[in-house]
From TrEMBL, chains A, B, C, D:
Acyl-CoA oxidase/dehydrogenase middle domain mapped to chain residues: 160-262
InterPro entries in the cross-refs: Acyl-CoA_dehydrogenase, Acyl-CoA_DH_CS, Acyl-CoA_Oxase/DH_mid-dom, Acyl-CoA_Oxase/DH_mid-dom_sf, AcylCo_DH-like_C, AcylCo_DH/oxidase_C, AcylCoA_DH/ox_N, AcylCoA_DH/ox_N_sf
Protein name as it appears in the record: Acyl-CoA dehydrogenase
Domain annotation Acyl-CoA dehydrogenase/oxidase C-terminal: ranges: 274-424
Record field: transmembrane: none
SUPFAM superfamilies: Acyl-CoA dehydrogenase C-terminal domain-like (SSF47203), Acyl-CoA dehydrogenase NM domain-like (SSF56645)
Amino acid sequence: MSVPYNIESSKYNLPASKRIPPIALPFVSERALKTLDVVEKFVEEECIPADVVFAQQIGTATEARFAAHPQIIEDLKVKAKQLGLWNMFLPRNHFSQGAGFSNLEYGLMAEILGKSATASEATNCAAPDTGNMEVIAKYGTEAQKQKWLTPLLDGKIRSAFLMTEPDIASSDATNIQLQITKEGNSWVLNGSKWWSSGAGDLRCQIYIVMGKTDPNNSNKHLQQSVILVPASTPGITINRMLSVFGFDDAPHGHGHITFNNVRVPLDHIVLGPGKGFEIIQGRLGPGRIHHAMRSIGAAEKALDWFLARINDQRKKPFGKVLSEHGIMLERIAKSRVEIDSSRLVVLNAAIAIDNADAKSALKEIAIAKVLVPATLLAVIDRAIQAYGGAGVCQDTPLAKMYSNGRTMRIVDGPDEVHMLQLGKNENKRAEFAAKKIEFQRIKGLRLLEERGLKPVDPLFLGRVSGGVAKL
Amino acid sequence: MSVPYNIESSKYNLPASKRIPPIALPFVSERALKTLDVVEKFVEEECIPADVVFAQQIGTATEARFAAHPQIIEDLKVKAKQLGLWNMFLPRNHFSQGAGFSNLEYGLMAEILGKSATASEATNCAAPDTGNMEVIAKYGTEAQKQKWLTPLLDGKIRSAFLMTEPDIASSDATNIQLQITKEGNSWVLNGSKWWSSGAGDLRCQIYIVMGKTDPNNSNKHLQQSVILVPASTPGITINRMLSVFGFDDAPHGHGHITFNNVRVPLDHIVLGPGKGFEIIQGRLGPGRIHHAMRSIGAAEKALDWFLARINDQRKKPFGKVLSEHGIMLERIAKSRVEIDSSRLVVLNAAIAIDNADAKSALKEIAIAKVLVPATLLAVIDRAIQAYGGAGVCQDTPLAKMYSNGRTMRIVDGPDEVHMLQLGKNENKRAEFAAKKIEFQRIKGLRLLEERGLKPVDPLFLGRVSGGVAKL
Amino acid sequence: MSVPYNIESSKYNLPASKRIPPIALPFVSERALKTLDVVEKFVEEECIPADVVFAQQIGTATEARFAAHPQIIEDLKVKAKQLGLWNMFLPRNHFSQGAGFSNLEYGLMAEILGKSATASEATNCAAPDTGNMEVIAKYGTEAQKQKWLTPLLDGKIRSAFLMTEPDIASSDATNIQLQITKEGNSWVLNGSKWWSSGAGDLRCQIYIVMGKTDPNNSNKHLQQSVILVPASTPGITINRMLSVFGFDDAPHGHGHITFNNVRVPLDHIVLGPGKGFEIIQGRLGPGRIHHAMRSIGAAEKALDWFLARINDQRKKPFGKVLSEHGIMLERIAKSRVEIDSSRLVVLNAAIAIDNADAKSALKEIAIAKVLVPATLLAVIDRAIQAYGGAGVCQDTPLAKMYSNGRTMRIVDGPDEVHMLQLGKNENKRAEFAAKKIEFQRIKGLRLLEERGLKPVDPLFLGRVSGGVAKL
Amino acid sequence: MSVPYNIESSKYNLPASKRIPPIALPFVSERALKTLDVVEKFVEEECIPADVVFAQQIGTATEARFAAHPQIIEDLKVKAKQLGLWNMFLPRNHFSQGAGFSNLEYGLMAEILGKSATASEATNCAAPDTGNMEVIAKYGTEAQKQKWLTPLLDGKIRSAFLMTEPDIASSDATNIQLQITKEGNSWVLNGSKWWSSGAGDLRCQIYIVMGKTDPNNSNKHLQQSVILVPASTPGITINRMLSVFGFDDAPHGHGHITFNNVRVPLDHIVLGPGKGFEIIQGRLGPGRIHHAMRSIGAAEKALDWFLARINDQRKKPFGKVLSEHGIMLERIAKSRVEIDSSRLVVLNAAIAIDNADAKSALKEIAIAKVLVPATLLAVIDRAIQAYGGAGVCQDTPLAKMYSNGRTMRIVDGPDEVHMLQLGKNENKRAEFAAKKIEFQRIKGLRLLEERGLKPVDPLFLGRVSGGVAKL
């Protein structure tokens, strides 16, 4: 098939490598620039058209949908590998197994991937595998790596990350209740997990599970451990999948899973008992950047759809296409302001991680985590409104995108947790700020004194008992 | 005076050079980093304490206030020159007369300057002189430079920029009406201008005036000229000053000025007749970056005051200091998110100008122009609310800062003009976006066909006359 | 089953009749007050618990879901009739067939009905039957009434209203394209409709169709006609149902329907050819009030769920239940402010209709139409956020409520159309406003003159050529 | 002067009595309707034109401004009395001395009064006299009434209410510190007050002061007393006046006052020691309604100015008057939605007070207190933006109105206090809400059981160890 829209030809259609904000350019290698354009061509011309095939190949009945593995995904994977688009997510600073890009460089690619339902998996850059691979690569034993990391890196199997639980406020990870108790040569797991994303896919063979090995440890951050649990281990039941605004996200899905005396060998623990909190803290940083950049891409896609709709010559309410109604141009502008500022925030956070690690980029990550979903939802919502009925139904990707976007305000910690953390950290500056202001006030008084001036209030009155006082 | 707060000592008090967003760092030279910290020390320890002296030295009655020139300004200028803090605003790419910094580097300094009422003038970086100096340096003749640029660069005189007019919609510069007609060896000016900022200062000796030399030119952008008019030219009357909310901004102020047969020699025109539009377009870009970065600084200052207030141990409504009431931490976090994202937007625009020129950075400048004042006003408003009565009156700088900030949504083009421009430009992509979406749809159908699949709607019903149709 | 929560006992649990805003009370009869409490008891104790049965009785596969008629609905209808809760929607001012309440009185009941998925149909007050019954009762012939109104009033059949079309901007009703041409003794319909809500239900036997009988009439509001079309007429195909986010709203649903030479007798037209626009204008007023009040009820329900969640003692992030985190109380308060102000707006519009008719209440209806969905979505969104994962999935009614609520910004005219109309109408006052302000200005000058005062500007300067002018 | 704009003639210019929301009409007597139109004519045709005279008669220098008493006020008072517009604020339910209107009826009048700077005082309905008169009329002794209430009712003197203090968080009235100690036959006052509005006026002869007579009382609400203090009592100093965004609000003003051994006779206490809290609670309810309705009037005035500006034919940015740019119509509509909904909220609160008292209308008053200033500021801000430079300076009333409006979010308790109270009260319903939801859930399960149905999750999977479980 020849390319029906010339990706080089128009100034309104610069390739991705030419659209990078100038402030980010010094951080992007020549190789990454080239790869970025390959990613874009692959996503726009191969993956997005394939999304509809994926949807058809999944089928309709729930059970079938969660047993499906659309062939189109494998077709795309072959192409992606041929193009060298594979495992771009593994940052070169920390891992040798990836494609050798920085978090920032991959972030720019993730933006493009975020425009398609199939592109992330097609390039083996799909959550939660990405974070899971990072965990095993960073903390796993050689045996763990051989058993699980190798097939994950090859895209042969998939994985899930089981942390959230239904019965507690799991926005606070110290509340986790799933028990991991040592019995002889085994760790025995009991409890339940939900929002186990990816668990619906029959190719999901390994669960990375967070639980408590030492629930009574006085240090709340040493109670947790992370353990590798093969999906086929007896005692595990995927009771049901969770919907997101009516969508089941099959075959990937979000599982509600119970563990009933699930036994795994002792060597399945990662890094050691009590290291769970440390592990997940490192895991979440880059993952949030990935989510955020994919969300930026989704917002750009929604804006594309918005533009297409408001200039549709067949749709003229009150005699004018929508873009001629002034409020629509304002909405475009708002979207552009929000998207561009959000992108800068994420890229800045990516660099902060690249420069050091996720822990030292807490503030930048938190800002990105909170700002981006708000932008995404606002932009999609405007597009939905422009499409009217077509915006909420199956005829545009918008309603599904909104549903995904809405979960971004919840997953990996709800907005409120990040805002609270941001607020608390910033508030630590308060004492210094107060001292500085007080110093400046006192020095001001001294400067006046040195000049023989009194600090007279601009509205000094000095009126006594109804009269006027003397100065 | 010994330093009462140790600018190096605390992790909550990193010097400015350590607070630069990581994404901006590659653009900042070692020299600029050092200068930045000198600027901060100068502003926090010298200028802000001096602000109160400035206020006292202006006096009270209107006429006196607009005849005042507070000595403290000259004292600060001496110190600033000693510290090498002079004319930092003139970008090294385009001018040899300045301190040799880029727009981005100066932007970071302007943020600090924006925290004080005296700092910008103390370092000869105050508007509108900055933009005026750029105009003369870039477009002026040698004679014009010698006469006006030299004393301006030395901080000996001040200047005003006269563009806005009271009787027209001057958000659209093509509406300008002041007449400039050639009579013999003179240009003769008739008309009126307002919001002539800086015209209140008796040291303001030169006006840069925009008017029409060719009002009937069919090209609306060739009708205007820019001309230099000495403030003492007969025929000029400063009728009154304009207040901002209830503030007069003396002695600088905002003048309402009439021109009645004001004659200047022919060589006072800048660049030539009909070049006015071209000149102001170049002038406004960097100026918007300066305004924006000073606004970022003002927002940081408001946040400092906010932090100081909500942790004031003497103020405990309902038994807790305000920071212990949850909503205050959320407001800190919102402010941090808004300030940090706005700063990135401005720095990115500064780099876009540094990389090429203001014209090619239109989008980035427009985004900064719109986003920053909204952030500034939101942050100040939260601080005002935390202070209650003290927030709106003379006891904090907040009400004055709010008033200044509110004008930022109006000066150099109101929000709406920039949003309209942003929206229109982005909308030019619409045709491409629509074509791309259509291509993807058609290619999707072909992919289905190739696989022998029909595109079945997920909610296909096919019910005929109350029954069910065949596929 | 005994009542497990005593609806009379607590001051936090006043019955609906005691929660009416005082300003609305004079408009509510004793009989309506009593009925309102019966409605509440029926909805809270019978209908909401039945919602889950309804969901189970629909089944899973698409085709089955749209062939289902859950028995629980019929069970509830029997109870509702016994309680005298039937056809309350038909306003007493205009119709004799209803329960004899005003629009305001029914509005208060609709609020309660809006809390349950089954309550509106159980009391024969479900859209679109309500509006359709009004149309036939008001404009129909005796034959039309006997054939369709009688079984509709009895709840024996259901109906759909077919106006919106997929290929045009149908927010502007003059764009409607479905052709209705006279051929011999028949009207022949060709075209397509979508968002035909209710068409999914097999009991839906009659379509009220809007189309064009006179597409070339120079008066754009005389081109349209409304015609009654039995669902079983040959040539009609329900191609598919439309989803709302991922929900299908079965069995009711939203149909995409084509008309291919569909023939109905000439007497099936309502009121006469060319009367279509007039009919729908009258139809939409009360319908918007119903939607709005049900939305108020939904918002109250979401707030109930929010309260339940933030006080859940099992969910303590960071050691405190959510309601002890300050921001949650602020969110409750915001929700209360928004709900209570929105309710007043709707009730005021209902009275405006009761006092005269929908046409003279255009402004009030438009305000309600725009304000209420915004309130509803804001309140639900807060609840979703408080529930986290449970908020977006099938474990709470919130995601489904949000989806419904989102369509409220689109159906019966998108927000933008109503805002445009409101803005245009209000703008007609501009000339008078300008004249009034000018009069006041001139009279002020005269008052000054009479007192021998000159209007001196507060910042008068009058400085000439660098000096100071004389007054 | 003949009426230059015919208040009866146009449908865009209905008199106030015809613009009352239909839902409020039953509460308005014929006499109030007539009076309302007289108020409107007086305000629009007499007071607003007089506002400029008032401003000129105050003068310029601070001391003079706070010694001024513009004659125009007395002229207007004569006219107002002739028209029967005097003391309309005293509600007929509780007082015999007023004009005999309800809080709702006066509320409608206060809306009109709120459009002028002079109208409230001209009709003796100005704060803080209104609340002060209510206090003395309700709680005062005969002697107190004769001495102070009579001249206040006659408009001969003015008064101030001294509650807020500079050194504490006085949003929480229990923090008040001013000491009132009994010494012999006197109460002796020591402490300081600020935001003592009205204290600037030389005619202000009586202060109603809140202080602590029993600071150690274990009941925090019995520590306070209210006491009458003549302004001329020795020991009182009005140190200075407080500005509001640069405005001094002279001669009324906001005083910062100190009490240094100020002695008043024992009989100057109101109602008795320890009754302070009770008194101010009753005082604030109607006052908040007055403020709110005046704010509604101010918002209407701002909208008038907005309309005048966006239709000004001399101001055409980009070739069109502003109202033809689509976003302006949307802003009109937003303003109309916000104003109309806010008005309903205030009127509903007024009726709640009329029906019983302020205490039982806490919720309704709090909603009005929070919602109205937000509306007012939003509407004025839009008008300022439309006017550009003219909007922030002395050429329109907008900047001054914004400044006043901004204080409305602070006076009589900041937004946050009211939101907290609203949130806490509403949260008391939580237990009931949770029980109701639980009841409904359990009853739903029972209904299923009765019908032999199992509650199957819509996405039931029941997959065990990678396979599929049996139901």
